């Protein structure tokens, strides 16, 4: 299947909130929660997308003519791209009835593994979500990253015990999920965590521990103090706090502050291989992409994911060649126009 064909198919089975837009930019779904939109004014999602578009890259083709290497080392695992599918949950609530969380995670994990990348799985109030995610990661011989929400200690440890039975590549927590409206006043309880509480989780995980939802230098420093092996610069797609800056705006300072201590990943509005290049130029080691992978699964299952990964690969390798980078490590801030 080709990318445009997948998009067309997705429009027949997604909704009513997500429109499977040609450009997933947060405009059509602006402040739809339930749905994929952002909180409050609905501008957080759109701002994430727009700030990547405002960045410009420097063309430089005077140099050695050899292929660009897009491969990425993710905690000892070689990925084809510095791209991972972000954790997404409550599929039927937000995206449509075609897939529940268990089926979505199973399809996504298998498709990403075949394409040479890795998927993060989501979590939910229903224990079956983590149980299904664990089974799906186990079926892929550990090629996946289970993501737990910041539940109370007892629930957290139970979920970690379950997730570890799949021997995953890493364990993640979306700490910013503490602000999700549909988790408030629910059982089990979820909320903010102290550095000491997070350090206990990191030590208990016995795997590289990834903290998703970092938006300040101080937050990044606290994540390092808590023992995180990686952070994800993320505002949860604009879904937890209105009027946040875009991830592209805060990424450079965070990468400069802690990039030599932890792996720095970023999400929020990244849609193309060119966007991936820009994120790496600003200091990220890799990126997570969420909503477009949902569209690809709804529109084409494993074939949809494969089509999107091909598109990202072609775009990233082409941009690297046109900007004079032969490997990911050669991408730097000087390759962005500073006008």
From TrEMBL:
Print the organism lineage. Answer: Bacteria, Bacillati, Bacillota, Clostridia, Eubacteriales
- Transmembrane annotation, as ranges: none
Q: Which residues form the active site?
A: 236
- The record lists FMN as bound by 212, 234, 236, 267-271, 290-291
Name the keywords, alphabetized. Answer: Flavoprotein, FMN
Residue ranges of the FMN-dependent dehydrogenase domain?
37-179, 193-337
Q: Which GO molecular function terms does the record list?
A: FMN binding; oxidoreductase activity
Enumerate the Gene3D superfamilies for this protein: Aldolase class I
Catalysed reaction, written as an equation: (S)-lactate + O2 = pyruvate + H2O2
* Name of the protein this chain belongs to: L-lactate oxidase
């Amino acid at each position: 299947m080709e990318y445009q064909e997948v998009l067309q198919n997705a429009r027949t089975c997604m909704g009513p909130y997500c429109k499977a837009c040609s450009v997933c930019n947060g405009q059509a779904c602006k402040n739809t929660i339930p749905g994929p939109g952002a909180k409050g004014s609905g501008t957080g999602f759109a701002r994430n997308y727009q700030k990547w578009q405002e960045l410009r890259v420097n063309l430089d083709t005077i140099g050695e003519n050899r292929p660009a290497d897009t491969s990425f080392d993710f905690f000892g695992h070689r990925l084809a791209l510095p791209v991972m599918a972000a954790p997404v949950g409550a599929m039927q609530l937000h995206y449509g009835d075609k897939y529940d969380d268990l089926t979505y995670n199973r399809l996504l994990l298998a498709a990403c593994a075949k394409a040479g990348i890795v998927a993060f799985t989501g979590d939910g109030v229903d224990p079956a979500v983590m149980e299904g995610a664990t089974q799906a990661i186990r079926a892929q011989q550990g090629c996946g990253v289970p993501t737990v929400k910041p539940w109370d200690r007892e629930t957290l440890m139970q979920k970690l015990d379950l997730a570890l039975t799949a021997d995953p590549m890493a364990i993640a927590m979306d700490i910013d999920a503490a602000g999700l409206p549909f988790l408030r006043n629910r059982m089990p309880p979820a909320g903010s965590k102290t550095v000491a509480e997070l350090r206990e989780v990191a030590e208990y995980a016995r795997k590289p521990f990834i903290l998703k939802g970092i938006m300040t230098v101080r937050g990044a420093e606290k994540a390092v103090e808590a023992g995180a092996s990686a952070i994800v610069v993320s505002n949860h797609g604009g879904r937890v706090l209105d009027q946040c800056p875009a991830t592209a705006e805060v990424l450079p300072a965070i990468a400069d502050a802690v990039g030599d201590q932890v792996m720095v990943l970023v999400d929020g509005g990244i849609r193309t291989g060119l966007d991936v290049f820009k994120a790496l130029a600003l200091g990220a080691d890799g990126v997570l992409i969420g909503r477009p992978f949902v569209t690809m699964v709804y529109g084409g299952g494993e074939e949809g994911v494969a089509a999107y990964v091909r598109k990202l690969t072609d775009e990233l390798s082409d941009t690297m060649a046109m900007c004079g980078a032969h490997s990911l490590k050669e991408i730097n801030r000087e390759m962005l126009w500073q006008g």
